[in-house]
TrEMBL record:
This is Uncharacterized protein. It comes from Amycolatopsis pretoriensis.
Length: 54
């Protein structure tokens, strides 16, 4: 290992043991983030055709 490499800061990530529960609201928020960071066009769907988990 080179001297420059040993001086790099280390990042520690702690993950939960299991998967967190995804509520419909959280799922919609995550989907909105994914849509924002991608360049895939999203089609508009009339409100009456949207299946929303209450």
């Amino acid at each position: 290992m080179s001297a420059a490499r040993s001086e790099e800061p280390q990042i520690r990530v702690i993950l939960p043991a299991g998967l967190p529960e995804l509520t419909p609201a959280v799922a919609r928020a995550l989907l909105a983030v994914l849509i924002e960071v991608t360049e895939v066009p999203v089609l508009d769907v009339p409100e009456e055709e949207v299946n929303r988990d209450s």
